[in-house]
Amino acid sequence: MTDLEFNICVDDYSDGVYRFILKISKNKEDAKDIVQTAFEKLWVNREKVETLKAKSYLFTVAYHLMIDQLRKETKIIMTDSFDETTQTVSQGSSELKQLLMQAINNLNPTQKSLILLKDYEGYSYQEIGEIMQLSESQVKVYLHRARLILKNKLTHVEKMSA
Amino acid sequence: MINKNNYETFFMSYIDNELNAAERAAVEAFVLSDSKYAAELAIFEKTKLQATSMEGIEMEDKIFLYRFPEMQASLDTDFKKSLYKKQAPVRKVLFTPNLIRASIAIAALLILFIGVQFYKSEVPIKEKAVFANANSLLSTEDNTLSKANTEVLIQNENSNSATTNSLALNRKIIKAEISKNSIAKTNTANNTIPAKEEQTLRINDINNNITSPINTSTVSTEPVSEFAADTKLNEKELSTNTTEAEPNETAKKNRMTPTVYKEIDIEEDDRTINIGLLEIDGSAFRGITRRVSALLKRNKLEKEK
User: Fold this and answer.
1) Which helix (H) or strand (E) covers residue A111, if one does?
2) Residue B237: how many CB atoms within 10 A of its CB?
3) What backbone phi and psi angles, to 5 degrees, belong to B272?
4) Which residues of A touch B10 (CB under 8 A)?
5) pLDDT digit string (tens) for B58-117?
């Protein structure tokens, strides 16, 4: 990977990695630190990492850094920073979307990561398995469980509103 | 194939784009079969996050992530080495040479001070004894025998100096001899005096002849008067024995030496060092000082080696 290719990766993937980490860690500073560390590792290993696999490499490194960060924290503090961010972003969106975001926030980090990697980044089960070091079937099972939780939540709200 | 038992899994895989074309077609056909399944698929689709919901969230300070050729510049290894700093290891020294020297100096000063004190305490006793003897001898100006005895005391050390000094310095020696005389007296009464005792009695008789005028002339303390009284008695009682003991004068001189040893013992009893209000046994302290000086000498010799 050349300097130019690396800088293109920064342009293309830094925001995506940042969003992914911010959505789960809910801490802007932590998310920034993790993204910086991930790109630092990519730079150090630029000779080994192919340009086409740079995105997957960045998400993999960032995901594991985030998991390590969450393990260090004995208690996950649900800060309002992310909620404020999402509220500003989702201004004008429907009530259903807000409910969905709340439901996703209640998922565990693994389920949340699966949803985010699938829906936002469009990774396949196999790619998600590589990033999260899970088998394809595990990814499928865990992701479907998360979807069912979200579906039940939305169904319950719709019934309540009706 | 998709059926009412497994449709949820197919629906989720459908919205995740994980089905092939045939499976997708089968799902779409299954949904058309019942409106209930169509509504359920719609709910599953709602669980999918829209990429637009995350738009606007951007990485801050992205500029720091970029890499430029200038950022790869590195310093020469030689120049880097010149930047290194080494700190000398700090050693903890408990006994520095100066501290050892100071402690030795303090110890030496202490020993010197104690020695001076000891010397001071020892000298006056001797001086007092000598002066007392001289005064007592001088006070008896009328008596010509006493003057002669003082001259003899100074000049003739070999003959009578030991006995006169012992008598003048210490009353206890005389008392001891008097006690001997009393023993001798009892022996004479029984007419069974051995030759040795006769000789000692003769010596004591001579001593009494020398000292008796001194003691009688001076205003002495009680023990001295007692001694004078005892000597008088001895004179009377032992006058008969003097004639018998005269021929053996050489043996008499030889018998004078034990009195000298007694004098040394008595001096040791009086050795006391006064430091302020403290009284220290001189002989014990002398032993300590000797040991300390011997240790110092030994150390000095070892260092010299």
Assistant:
1) helix A109-119
2) 17
3) -140, 140
4) none
5) 777 777 788 777 777 777 888 878 878 777 777 777 777 888 899 999 999 999 999 999
Record the tokens describing residue B95, joined without a space.
């006994």
Q: Which amino acid appears at position B241 of this protein?
A: N
Cβ-defined contact of B67 to A3 (cutoff 8 Å):
yes
- In angstroms, rounded to a whole number, what is the distance separating the alpha carbons of residues B224 and B204? 16
Dihedral sign for Cα atoms in the order B252, B253, B257, B263: positive
Q: Does the CB of A154 have a partner CB in chain B at under 8 Å?
A: yes
Q: What is the DSSP letter of B84?
A: -
CATH number for the region A1-89 comes to 1.10.1740
In Å, how far are A26, A36, B63 from A29, measured between CA atoms?
9, 11, 16
Numbered residues of chain B with Cβ closer than 8 Å to any chain A Cβ = 8-9, 12-13, 15-16, 18, 43-44, 46-51, 53-62, 64-69
**Kindly report the CA angle at B54 between B51 and B60, in degrees rounded to 5?**
135
pLDDT digits (tens, 9 = 90+) for B110-160: 999 999 998 888 766 666 666 666 666 555 555 555 454 545 455 544 444
Side chain identity at B68, as an amino acid letter?
F
* In the predicted structure, residue A104 carries a pLDDT above the cut 90: no
Entry pTM? 0.46
Pairwise CB contact (< 8 Å): B54 & A3: no
Least confident span in A76-85, A106-115, B129-138, B173-182: A76-85
Structure tokens at B181: 């005389």
Q: Is B88 helix (H, G, I), strand (E, B) or coil?
A: coil
What does the block give as tokens for B231?
A: 């000597």
A91-162 folds as Arc Repressor Mutant, subunit A (1.10.10)
Q: What is the maximal distance between C-alpha atoms in chain A?
A: 58
Are residues A89 and B67, on separate chains, in Cβ contact within 8 Å? Answer: no
Contact state of B53 with A101 under an 8 Å Cβ cutoff = yes
The conformation of residue B219, written as its DSSP 8-state character, comes to: -
Q: For chain A, which residues make up each domain, given as ranges?
A: 1-89, 91-162
Closest-CA distance, A36 to chain B, in angstroms, reads 7
Cβ separation B49–A7 shorter than 8 A: no
User: In 3D, which of B175, B188, B198, B199 has the Cα closest to residue B252?
Assistant: B199
Token pair of A157 as six digits:
């709200």
- Contact, A148 vs A114, CB < 8 A? no
